[in-house]
Design a protein that fits this description.
182 residues; alpha/beta; Rossmann fold; seven-stranded mixed β-sheet; globular; binds adenosine monophosphate
Length: 182
């Protein structure tokens, strides 16, 4: 008999760690999902399920957990992969975008030739909270001429408003589960 993973089982593979990396934050750890073969496969399949069968040129992953999920998604949909990295990590010519953190800003980069004008790109990360990181990535992709088909996250923290922020930028958002709080 084929074993299937019930909806709540995918959620059960997330480990929640209170007060990490600082007091008041409930860290949602996906390493336990990644370590479970069926959960990992299912998360990858479900992330892009609404766009299955559509032409996807590239999957962009945000450093670092977005690389693991995004790389698997890119393989699954036979697309190329684009790493979006913290500044100073990419060796070739880059484009750079500032993005909002809880306190202050930081900058992310991608290679200027990673996307061709009109490429259809799906953005992937593990979790969306305030949406500052994903908003920066969408702006970066659009700056180089990409069409951002969708942004996909395993986890949504809806109280922080990130998914709503992306939808307001006309980016369809796919999330597999949500948790209350920060
Ligand atoms: P934000 O820019 O506020 O949407 O934050 C999203 C980024 O921060 C993602 O790359 C997440 O991996 C990370 N992040 C934010 N909050 C959490 C949390 N509670 N647990 C795990 N990762 C988080």
């Amino acid at each position: 008999m084929t074993q299937t993973l019930a909806d709540n089982d995918l959620r059960a593979t997330i480990r929640s760690i209170p007060d990490y990396p600082k007091p008041g934050i409930m860290f949602r750890d996906i390493t336990t999902l990644l370590g479970d073969a069926r959960a990992f496969r299912r998360a990858v399949d479900e992330l892009v399920q609404p766009w299955a069968g559509m032409k996807i040129d590239k999957v962009a992953g945000i450093e670092a957990r977005g690389f693991i999920l995004g790389g698997a998604v890119a393989h699954q949909v036979s697309a190329g992969f684009i790493p979006i990295r913290k500044k100073g990590k990419l060796p070739h010519q880059t484009v750079r975008m500032a993005y909002a953190l809880e306190y202050g800003t930081d900058e992310m980069e991608m290679h200027v030739d990673a996307v061709r004008h009109g490429d259809r790109v799906v953005l992937v990360d593990d979790l969306i909270a305030t949406g500052g990181t994903a908003e920066g990535a969408v702006k970066l992709l659009r700056q180089v001429g990409a069409e951002v088909l969708a942004a996909c996250f395993v986890i949504d923290l809806p109280e922080l408003g990130g998914a709503a922020k992306l939808r307001a930028m006309d980016v369809p958002v796919r999330t597999l589960m949500s948790f209350e709080g920060h």
